[in-house]
Design goal:
CATH topology of the largest domain: NADH Oxidase
Helix content: 25-40%
Order of helices and strands: EEHHEHEEHEEEHEHEEE
Shape: globular
CATH class of the largest domain: Alpha Beta
CATH superfamily of the largest domain: NADH Oxidase
Radius of gyration: 19 Å
């Protein structure tokens, strides 16, 4: 069974050796949480490097690897970026400075700005594949952070133009997401509820739902 390394909570280690106990890949997927509050503790360089390498190994269309990452430690820059985040109300109107991760960007010792170059391949069949590739890469980022005992969250609503200027990002590059990274202030045992499989899994063709009994490997059509 596929496994990835994870650090044990409560055990103090001076360096990350890569020999820590491992957690099943599916456990990492199921226990990952969106973390928006962090303790005042640096992110170990060894762990950060492993996360960046996990991003590097993500699949991408044509192996173009369109992602570009900016690792931000400077507290003044993180503070300035936090002031540029926002959210959308129910009418999808942008509301500045209301993002729930605003404080977390300030608290986290590391902020990763994930960028992409859309011009490398453009839309194919009306699909913007650079966004798909960024999704694949950042899923690696989030799961590897979880595996190493760290927490993060995807922050996608912000004033992109101002963030671009602040970080000297070229005008042809999109700033897709922000990821504060650090040691969680507290563990989150439960995540939001998920839809049951029969609500989104079809059997053979659209509309033929597959009912899955959670206590059985068998399924039934409906």
């Amino acid at each position: 069974m596929s496994k990835i390394p994870v650090s044990q909570e409560g055990k103090q280690k001076k360096t990350f050796t890569g020999q820590e106990p491992s957690v099943d890949t599916f456990d990492a997927i199921q226990t990952r949480r969106s973390i928006r509050s962090f303790i005042e503790k640096p992110v170990e360089d060894e762990k950060l490097q492993r996360i960046l390498k996990a991003v590097r190994m993500a699949p991408s269309w044509g192996n173009i690897q369109c992602w570009r990452l900016i690792v931000i430690r400077d507290s003044r820059t993180r503070k300035a970026i936090s002031e540029l985040t926002g959210s959308f109300d129910r009418s999808f109107h942008y509301v500045p400075k209301t993002n729930p991760a605003k404080r977390g960007i300030v608290e986290a010792p590391v902020l990763i700005a994930v960028c992409a170059d859309p011009s490398q391949f453009g839309p194919l069949q009306s699909k913007h594949y650079y966004m798909i590739d960024i999704g694949l890469a950042t899923q690696n980022l989030m799961l590897s952070a979880r595996a190493l005992g760290l927490g993060t969250v995807f922050v996608g609503v912000f004033d992109e133009e101002k963030v671009r200027r602040l970080l000297n990002v070229p005008s042809n590059i999109r700033v897709v997401g922000l990821f504060p990274l650090g040691h969680p202030r507290k563990a989150k045992d439960r995540g939001p509820s998920r839809k049951p499989l029969h609500e989104f899994v079809f059997h053979e063709k659209w509309g033929k739902r597959l009912r899955t009994d959670p206590d059985s490997a068998r399924g039934a059509e409906s």
